[in-house]
Amino acid sequence: MATFLYKLGRLAFRRRHFVALIWVALLTLAGVGAASAPPAGNSSFSIPGTEAQKAFDLLEQRFPGASADGATARVVFKAPSGEKMTDADNKATVQKTVDELADGSEVASVADPYTGNAVSKDGTIAYASVKYDVSGMELEESTKDALEDAAQQARDAGLTVEVGGDALQAVPETGATEVIGIAVAAVVLVITFGSLVAAGLPLLTALIGVGIGVSSITALASALELGSTTSILAMMIGLAVGIDYALFIVSRYRAELAEGREREEAAGRAVGTAGSAVVFAGLTVVIALVGLAVVNIPMLTKMGVAAAGTVAIAVLIALTMIPALLGYAGRRVKPAGAKGKLLGRSRKSEPKREAAGGQPKANLGTRWASFVVRRPLAVLLLGVIGLGAAAVPAASLELGLPDDGSQPTSTTQRRAYDLLSEGFGPGFNGPLMVVVDAKGSDAPKDAFDDVAGEIKGLDGVVAVTPPAPNKGGDTATITVIPDSKPSSVQTEDLVHAIRDAGGDVEAKTGAETLVTGSTAMNIDVSEKLNDALVPYLVLVVGLAFLLLIVVFRSILVPLKAALGFLLSVMAALGAVVAVFQWGWLSGLMGVEETGPVMSMMPIFMVGVVFGLAMDYEVFLVTRMREAFVHGEKPHQAVVTGFKHGARVVTAAAVIMMAVFAGFIGSSESMVKMIGFGLAIAVFFDAFVVRMAIVPAVLALLGKKAWWLPKWLDRALPNVDVEGEGLRTAGERGSGPDEDRELVRA
């Protein structure tokens, strides 16, 4: 592989005009596609195999035209102090609002509070339910404006009016902190390279890659039903890995220049060595993201595949666009140690930095690695204990999906949620819909009544509506109001109790009872994700473990990498629980409402963090193996790996943390939580696991770290990540037929 990538790097360097033209053309094509594509429609949230989804599908069959997936809104009214909603003036205002809402072209129905028993017992709060023909993401802006205008007119009449539901669902915003994250990355790159030109290359290629990836997602959003969150997550991951991969290759290019090689040769060797690490690091990320398909949640699968596509683009750009741009930059990208005038240092000043013995002063990475190999056990214990302490909050992890109760208090959705809780109880915001399928029952009406009676006798039930049968009389819906809020454990227990009671009724009457609704759907999603976590871990970690055996030709090094990852991801989950569930530093993170951690957070973090963790593992440890293969002793190989790789890995980790942290300013709670979780996970993994635990373990293992059974060594393909083949291939130079050799390869 190293030889193939070496030739690819030299080809891209020489044919830089052609390479740049291809990528600019792809960016333009993707941009035109995104600009001309129809707006994204409904991002369907289906959960195959769950009872809630089965009930939802049954409703669409047995209640045709009911717009089961249509948007809903609850317009909540509160009377001024000392008045009631039943007063004549207030009643007239509400009636006028209901009439205005009913005139909308996309409105399916509007329920009058005074005829639908939607006034609180104390008479101070009432609500009107609005049902639309299309989903929240498909509603016309004029329809949303009409809803807001009607609410505002009622406010002008003296009432407190708030609007809940998904009708006002908006595309999430990432905020200005995303730009700050990119700015921090730029500063780190300038400090690392000491040159604006060298620092600009990773940023430019990452932005081109993300531009192609996100534009492609936008162009396909309508056809593939991709949600707005998909492009945000693809941008988040694509920016981080795109900058890091380019950083690895540019750093290796400067190191090759420092050894006296010509620029074309240096570009080829940089792509052949660091590029090999980039390929395998990218493969682990792609495996982890595509592996999300095992959860069998279409939305999560689409998010993973879209993000994986952006990572693949980042790898290809790093391997081709970077050497092409290095060709354009020429002498403006200086050798390692020869910094430009920007930071006031030059290579001529380097010899002055000598230790007392006359030897060049060791850099910080060398000094740190030397300390670790002298005290490996102490460093290992300190790192493991520290991560273990950070992981303690994960023991109290509670999972759920966000609802209006998790919105900031500044939003009308959250204020509507609070008003409904005040007037009708906390469970009113999460009603359960029970669907009774009596098609196989001899007495459907009796079966409906039996189910309703069983539910009334359960603990935690505030109200049960009479069964509402369909036209055929074989299916009925029953609405159940719990006495606890939607995201509580008590509501989850009630859902299971209703399903158990339905099983008893089915045994007697033959009627099947199903529980659905957003609350039941959230509960089923959480359980499905929990059940999928172990199989997903086995699949992703197992495949990546096999891949790393091929890369490192070792059993213990990949095993250590996997165990280190588990430490860092558990510590990161602990930090997420502490901030988003316990409320520690919540003000600093902009978390206005604490609550359960999103159900998909653990499995998504496992997938993404594992892939990103392997980036640093591959880049840092391949340098160590390269030194070991070339004859250095195990301890010295660890120090050599840090000498060449620690600065780059540190810069890469800081950049990735800055990019992820930039998404903490998002208005979407899911994006905010993932941004924080990935940023803190990169910190733990890069600076504790890879910088401390990894060298400590390798120092303790010595030569055993690189042990591989002879039969397995013979069976494994030799991918030559260390670039051993370049020791002769590079010296041979290139002939006029090298381009054809690349094609044959």
Structure description:
There is one protein chain. With 745 residues, the chain is α+β, with helices and mostly antiparallel strands. The protein is 62% helix and 7% strand. It contains 23 helices and eleven strands. Strand 8 (468-469) and strand 9 form a beta hairpin. Helix 11 (364-374) crosses helix 20 and helix 17 (556-581) packs antiparallel against helix 20 (669-701).
List the keywords.
single chain; 745 residues; alpha+beta; 5-stranded antiparallel beta sheet; 4-stranded antiparallel beta sheet
Mind sketching the topology for me?
Elements: H1 2-14, H2 16-36, H3 51-62, E1 72-78, H4 88-102, E2 107-111, E3 125-132, H5 141-156, E4 160-165, H6 177-193, H7 196-224, H8 228-258, H9 263-290, H10 298-329, H11 364-374, H12 376-391, E5 399-400, H13 412-424, E6 432-437, H14 444-456, E7 461-464, E8 468-469, E9 475-482, H15 489-509, E10 512-516, H16 518-552, H17 556-581, E11 597-598, H18 601-629, H19 634-661, H20 669-701, H21 710-715, H22 726-732, H23 738-744
Helix pairs in contact: 1-2, 1-9, 1-10, 1-23, 2-7, 2-10, 4-5, 6-7, 6-19, 7-8, 7-10, 8-9, 8-10, 8-19, 9-10, 9-16, 9-18, 11-19, 11-20, 12-17, 12-20, 14-15, 16-17, 16-18, 17-18, 17-20, 18-19, 18-20, 19-20
Briefly say what this structure is.
By secondary structure, the chain is α+β, with helices and mostly antiparallel strands. It has helices at 2-14, 16-36, 51-62, 88-102, 141-156, 177-193, 196-224, 228-258, 263-290, 298-329, 364-374, 376-391, 412-424, 444-456, 489-509, 518-552, 556-581, 601-629, 634-661, 669-701, 710-715, 726-732, 738-744, and strands at residues 72-78, 107-111, 125-132, 160-165, 399-400, 432-437, 461-464, 468-469, 475-482, 512-516, 597-598. Helix 2 (16-36) packs antiparallel against helix 10 (298-329), helix 6 (177-193) runs antiparallel to helix 19 and helix 7 runs antiparallel to helix 8.
